């Protein structure tokens, strides 16, 4: 994949190029230190992917994208600041990497590109609200002033809070303005299971299962959350998890 690195910091460009050496399918065909240089290279070289810094002298990364004539390359933003995540999402960014970039996060971003290339039918429209979301899908989450791009496989639990749903991942518990029912319709039922009226659990996160009252089950998730599976859902759970 023909790739262009756009960053005003030479050390940042060098470090990213070094990390990208781990991915043979990524062919770095050029570097630019500002938007004007990048626009000329984009026109001349027609890259398929940009690793794009946001804060740069002159035009910033968003202004650069707005100035591109014709079809824009795919974009992965690289920045030291998390406050631009909302705007990055509006520009249909594939990912949003915070500096210093870690190899495992870069690998997730590259895998996401490869998944899109292998399944182009899921690529458009990018905001298809009917698409079933699996553990490898990454979603944008905003709660107050905090923003995340989080892979759904890291979300161990979805908890209904009235008209909101609380997502449990790492040590974070942000709220999103969704009902649990609407969220259930979007999630892959082979990975995300409706345990009861208030909870959807991520099945690979289950650590222990115990019999519970009235034919129900009690599951303990990795991390310690204990969630009751209702009697009716316990029947479905056993069918789903049996050979």
TrEMBL record:
Pfam families: LytTR, Response_reg. The modification 4-aspartylphosphate is found at residue 53. Residues 2-114 form the Response regulatory domain. CDD domains: REC_LytTR_AlgR-like. The keyword Phosphoprotein applies. Keywords: Phosphoprotein. One of its GO terms (molecular function) is DNA binding. Residues 141-243 form the HTH LytTR-type domain. SMART domains: LytTR, REC. This is Response regulator. It comes from Larkinella knui.
């Amino acid at each position: 994949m023909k790739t262009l690195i756009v960053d005003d910091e030479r050390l940042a460009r060098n470090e990213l190029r070094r990390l990208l050496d781990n991915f043979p399918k990524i062919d770095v065909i050029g570097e630019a230190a500002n938007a004007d240089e990048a626009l000329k290279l984009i026109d001349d070289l027609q890259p398929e992917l940009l690793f794009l810094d946001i804060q740069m002298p002159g035009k910033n990364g968003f202004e650069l994208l707005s100035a591109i004539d014709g079809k824009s390359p795919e974009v992965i933003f690289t920045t030291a600041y998390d406050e631009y995540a909302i705007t990055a999402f509006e520009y249909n960014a594939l990912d949003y990497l915070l500096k210093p970039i870690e190899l495992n996060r870069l690998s997730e971003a590259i895998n996401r590109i490869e998944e899109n290339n292998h399944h182009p039918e899921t690529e458009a429209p990018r905001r298809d609200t009917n698409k079933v979301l699996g553990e490898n899908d990454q979603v944008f989450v905003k709660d107050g002033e905090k923003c995340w791009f989080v892979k759904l496989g890291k979300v161990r639990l979805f908890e209904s809070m009235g008209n909101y749903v609380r997502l449990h991942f790492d040590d974070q518990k942000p709220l999103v303005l969704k009902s649990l029912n609407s969220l259930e319709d979007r999630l892959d039922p082979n990975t995300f299971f409706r345990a009861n009226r208030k909870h959807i659990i991520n099945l690979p996160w289950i650590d222990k299962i115990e019999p519970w009252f009235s034919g129900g089950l009690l599951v303990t998730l990795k991390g310690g959350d204990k969630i009751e599976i209702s009697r009716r859902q316990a029947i479905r759970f056993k069918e789903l998890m049996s050979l």
